[in-house]
Amino acid sequence: MNMGSPPGLTSPLNMSLEEKMEVDNRSIYVGNVDYGATAEELEAHFHGCGSINRVTILCNKYDGHPKGFAYIEFGDRDSVQTAMAMDDSLFRGRQIKVMPKRTNRPGLSTTNRPPRGRGNFRGARGNEQRLLC
């Protein structure tokens, strides 16, 4: 659910790290968003904070259901500080969490780690348990 971007803005996929950081400095994270909320409702809730460029409600890629959080991009940085005053406000009967959006940095992903969990290693303890059973 994305309200889209105003004319002239570049797609986030085509932006440099510096451009992404500049956009992120004008954006907030909104947590504990009601699953039935719309981008229009979020825009109305934050309308007093400043000019809003984009409202993005993230959805699960497997079933399409909302994940319960959103990002709001403002036209200027000062709006982020104004929006921070909305932390713990009620939106659709839920107390929302408002924080400045952080910039994801390349190479700091948790998906780049080797797999964890059970591998092919079988220690002595595993063998002992098999012998005892």
Query: How much helical structure, as a percent, in the residues?
Result: 10-25%
Range of strand content: 15-25%
Q: Given the helix and strand composition, which structural class is it? A: alpha+beta
Q: What is the terminal separation in angstroms?
A: 54 Å
Order of helices and strands: HEHEEHEEEH
Number of helices: 4
Identify the strand order in the major beta sheet. 2-3-1-6
Beta strand count: 6
Largest β sheet strand count, sense and barrel closure: 4 strands, antiparallel
Q: How much is the average pLDDT?
A: 82
Overall 3D geometry?
A: globular
- Gyration radius, rounded: 21 Å
Low-confidence stretches: 126-133
Protein name: RRM domain-containing protein
Pfam family, one: RRM_1
Keywords: RNA-binding
Put the structure in a nutshell.
The chain is an alpha+beta fold and about 130 residues long. About 25% of the residues lie in helices and about 25% in strands.
Polypeptide structure, described:
This protein is of the alpha+beta class and 133 residues long. It has helices at 17-24, 39-45, 78-84, 124-132, and strands at residues 27-31, 52-59, 66-74, 90-91, 94-95, 97-100. It starts with 16 loop residues before the first helix and ends with a helix. It holds the Pfam family RRM_1. Residues 112-126 have a biased composition (Low complexity). This is RRM domain-containing protein. InterPro entries: Nucleotide-bd_a/b_plait_sf, RBD_domain_sf, RRM_dom.
